[in-house]
Specification:
The protein folds into two domains: 95 residues, Endonuclease Iii, domain 2 (Orthogonal Bundle), CATH 1.10.1670; 102 residues, Endonuclease III, domain 1 (Orthogonal Bundle). The chain is mainly α. It contains twelve helices and no strands. Helix 9 packs across helix 11. The structure holds iron/sulfur cluster. The site of iron/sulfur cluster has 14 residues, from helix 9 and helix 12.
Length: 214
């Protein structure tokens, strides 16, 4: 995929202007809490996750605490989340590995993170980026949709989109880009009926330009 450098620069400049304080909406105070919150966030809003973790982290704060739980005990705590039975099993299994293999700490490399139960590419990249300040692009549904509409990526898969974005944008902007695209996807470039007439990126947006030509 070849990209118009000027288009990319203009999109980045505008996103930066639109969302200067973009960051994760998940509430956490260390990489371990972020990992648990990120696992819980699959198919659940960040707001709902924050509501659950507010009480959860008061009761259980370490990998050893979670590792000692039975799945039914954790299920009761996280019942407000989608897929809570799976998440409960995965969190306990992941925490047992953390307690046994990593002295209770969260590893800060992609290959180790992705081996933990319940942790896919997206979750691993969220933890690397927001938990450890590393350059990473987590492709969730908003990032996937907005990046492909804008033409920053041209891929039918999250992995292909991640690779396209990593090529399109300088490494030190990867984490910011992830947050900018999420904000834009939530506010303007919604899945159904994107608000193109209000969108200040429309002059560089492949989807908008294609629609106008038709
Ligand atoms: S112009 Fe429309 S499709 Fe393109 S980024 Fe903006 S809202 Fe999304």
């Amino acid at each position: 995929m070849t990209l118009d450098k000027e288009k990319v620069e203009n999109i980045i400049k505008e996103l930066e202007k639109l969302y200067p304080n973009a960051g994760t909406a998940l509430e956490y105070s260390n990489p371990f809490e972020l990992l648990i919150a990120a696992i819980l966030s699959a198919q659940t809003t960040d707001k709902q996750v924050n509501k659950i973790t507010k009480n959860l982290f008061k009761k259980y704060s370490t990998a050893a605490d979670f590792a000692a739980l039975k799945p039914e005990e954790l299920e009761k705590e996280i019942k407000g989340c989608g897929l809570y039975r799976n998440k409960s099993r995965n969190i306990i299994a992941a925490c047992r590995i953390l307690a046994k293999k990593y002295n209770g700490e969260v590893p800060s490399d992609f290959e180790s993170l992705i081996k933990l139960p319940g942790v896919g590419r997206k979750t691993a990249n969220v933890v690397l980026s927001s938990g450890f300040g590393k350059d990473a692009i987590a492709v969730d549904t908003h990032v996937f949709r907005v990046a492909n509409r804008l033409g920053l990526a041209q891929s039918s898969t999250p992995l292909g989109t991640e690779k396209d974005l990593m090529k399109a944008v300088k490494k030190d902007l990867w984490s910011k880009l992830h947050h900018w695209l999420i904000y834009h996807g939530r506010n303007i470039c919604t899945a159904r009926n994107p608000k193109c007439s209000l969108c200040t990126l429309k002059n560089w947006c492949s989807h908008y330009i294609r629609k106008k030509i038709k």
